Amino acid sequence: LKNGLSVTLIEKDDDSLKHTKETIDHLIQKYPPFKVPKVVLSTSFSKLKTCGLIIEAVYEDFALKQSIFSQLSQYVDESTIVASNTSSIPISSLASHLPYPKQFVGIHFFSPVAKMELIEIIKGSKTSNTTCNKAKAFASLLGKTPILVKDTRGFYTSQIVMGYIYEAMKMVTEGISPIEIENAARQIGMPTAPLALADEIGIDVAWHILNENKQD
Which end of the chain has fewer CB within 10 Å, C or N? Predict the structure, then answer.
């Protein structure tokens, strides 16, 4: 929206749509777009028929993502790029539940999205080079910095970040003061301390990532 793109956003129910609209209105006030954005909010997947790029962004649960892809499959064709915002689940495994795996790619944003410039582009085993290049072009269009990463669980950044957070959590269980942990991280130059980062990402999200990683 900030970059003038038309956006269709699908939520699971009306309460979620209401919350989403409030969030969008808040972000537009905080980060004003260059022109009045066009956004469609709905609970129906049929609204995705005219979209050239669809990004799934539910939490890290393989079965849930599989269900989402099954629902949207009837509304896509060979010209539609479908992407996942997954932070840990390999793209190649998710692609098996889509009709056009060549058009499927990982586009992993980082929280808070409005501020973070980095985007991971994950090429699955069946992702075409054309799809990958379009994903990188899309990231650049948003003013982000795309990096191409290997399709392994956790990719690049999540492996680093989860290790950072896990060690901090482990230190807490060993009786070390959370204040000391956070201060030590800042003193060595980390922009966000690990426990604060866990809050920003969402402890529930981190928990889902850790559980998905156990499958390997």
Answer: C
